UniProtKB/TrEMBL annotation:
It holds the Pfam family HIT. SUPFAM superfamilies: HIT-like. It comes from Gordonia paraffinivorans NBRC 108238. PANTHER family: ADENOSINE 5'-MONOPHOSPHORAMIDASE HNT1 (PTHR46648:SF1), HIT FAMILY PROTEIN 1 (PTHR46648). Gene3D superfamilies: HIT-like. This is HIT family protein. InterPro entries: Histidine_triad_HIT, HIT-like, HIT-like_sf.
Amino acid sequence: MASVFSMIINGDLPGRFVWKDEQAVAFLTIEPVTPGHVLVVPREEVDHWEQLDPALFAHLSGVAQKCGKAVKKAFDAPRIGLLIAGLEVPHVHIHVFQGLSLETFDLANANKNAKPEDLDAAAEKIRGALRELGFGEHVAD
C-alpha cells in the first residue's frame, strides 16, 4: 500500500505544495509546530533516511535548505529548524520549520487543529519567497 505521502504526491489526497521537481516535493504539514512548517519528501518511497541513495539525500538536503531560506524570509524567522524523525509516516521526510525554541523541535507540540485558511496563506507566502529567492521554476502552483 502506498504511503500517505505517495498518495499526496500522486494527487490522491490534497496537499499544499510549495516545491516540485523530478526527485522531490515539499508541502505543508497539516500539523505544524510553527507557521510555514514544510515537509521535504522524495518521490521515491523509502522508509529510512539512511537507506536513501547518497545523491538523492544530497538533493533532498538542498531542497530543504532552499525551503528553509524561503520560510525564514516569508516569516522573518530568527532561525530555521530541520528534523528527520521518521516515526510518523514510513516514507522519508525532512521537517523544515521556524526554530523559535527547543520546544519547536518536539513534534508532540504540533498544532493538531491548524486552520485550512492559515495553511493556505502560509503556503502562498513560502511560494512567494521561493520565487523572490530565484527558485521559481520549482515553485508549485
